[in-house]
Write a structure and sequence with these properties.
Layout lengths: L10 E2 L5 E2 L4 H8 L17 H15 L8 E3 L18 E3 L16
Parallel strand pairs: 3-4
Antiparallel strand pairs: 1-2
């Protein structure tokens, strides 16, 4: 049963895994006085968890689809959390969540 309130963090799963409330990018932003909501927030303004739940099946269909299954990986889960994932041979597609708000944009550059 889902509750209307979040659990205490860090959360320990039934299998003993420890889940922090904020991911590395969110902690990085926080250290720079920029704030993001928790991915565990599923409802109300600022929630991103529901978007993640909708997006995960789409990424799965892409990753394991007929044309990409042999040529793609999902970062960081299938790449060993490396910063330089790659395939040794052939084409390579990397599926990764991006956080555009974490990157400074030079508005004077026009493409």
């Amino acid at each position: 049963m889902l509750k209307g309130t979040k659990p205490r963090f860090p959360f320990v799963t039934g299998a003993g895994h420890i889940l922090p409330e904020f991911r590395a990018v969110e902690r990085w932003l926080h250290d720079r006085k920029r704030y993001a909501h928790s991915v565990w927030k599923l409802w109300t303004s600022g929630s991103v968890g529901s978007q993640a739940l909708v997006g995960i099946p789409v990424v799965s269909r892409l990753r394991f689809g007929e044309f990409l299954a042999q040529h793609s990986l999902v970062w960081p889960f299938e790449t060993g959390f490396t910063c330089t994932p790659s395939r040794e041979e052939g084409p390579f597609v990397l599926h990764a969540e991006i956080y555009p708000g974490a990157v400074a944009v030079d508005s004077s550059v026009h493409v």
